[in-house]
Amino acid sequence: MTAIPLPQYSYSSILQDAAKVTWQVQDLMNEHKSLDFSKSFLPEALAHSQGITCLNPAEQLTLNHIRGHSYLHLFGLVEEFILPLVVNHVQSLGCTHIQATQAYLGFAAEESKHIHLFRRFSAAFMAGFGHPCSGIGPAKAIADFVLQHSPLGVALVTLHIEWMTQRHFLESVHYHSGKCLDPQFCSLLKHHWQEEAQHARLDTLMVQDLAQTLDEAAIEAAIDDYIAIIQYLNQGLKAQVQLDMASLEQAIGRTLSAIAHEEIQHIQELSYQKVFLSSGMTHPNFVRSVQALSATGSARIAAIAHTFSYSHPKLFLKKTAA
Ligand SMILES: [Fe+2]
Ligand SMILES: [Fe+2]
Fold first, then answer.
1. Domain for residue 90, yes or no?
2. Which bound ligand lies closest to the C-alpha atom of 197?
3. How many domains does the chain have?
4. Cα–Cα 20 to 30 A to 131, which of 10, 73, 77, 318?
5. What percentage of the chain's residues is helix, strand, coil (to nearest 5)?
6. How far is it, in rounded angstroms, from Cα 59 to Cα 99?
7. How many angstroms is it from 196 CA to the middle of ligand 1?
């Protein structure tokens, strides 16, 4: 297979685009705004709660809200390893290519702003939800695990995450006009992507920069690192499903049966894997960057992504009926 050439991004055009985005956390969530719990927080394409047969519609909506909370929590977690990656990279650049330095410093500042944004929305969630809601962590332990891998491996995970954010916005909010969603959550997905659009291009350049200094064996080792981090995150997502189910039982005031647990675990694991893993691993721009590094590495990642493809809930019903 012939790899499609990577687009030629420039630091000057990235800086120009970054300067056009001027929102502040206060604009998106403040003391005059709150979340509307009568509406979904995430589109069904990101929550997959409506196909769960053991829940009634009100309970499916509560699960959607819990998925909204975990979305905030999980993005808060990943931003905590992206920020040090970018800070370390900018330190290695110095001032030789000053536009690159300026662009990465802007990137780091925006990721700090995003951590603040997700925490602010989490506080609004807790104020309105009325029940405890847990997330995996602690964030520092997850960041420490991720950052012990090679910078190129971590940069690939970051590239995956930032292009994945585009799919979250485009495929679920933009193409559906955010219909019936809570307007604050819709606004969060839109504004987050406005800045991630620059980050994804900077990640592409960072991956190219880091790879330039490495031989073939070191590049394959970095792809091993990427895969190890993805598998680690997959375990974390499975644990998050269990926490979500405990939150759901508290919020709906009933204990779910063993069969109901099995159905929710099955559907929600597939959902988390599609939303946070395969949607990044199969993003065409991510695939292009990996193909430029290693054809075999790209094939290995594609094979793993295939195992994370979302299956329709009916597959679960068939499985249990058999
Ligand atoms: Fe971000
Ligand atoms: Fe970002």
1. yes
2. 2
3. 1
4. 77
5. 75, 0, 25
6. 50
7. 6
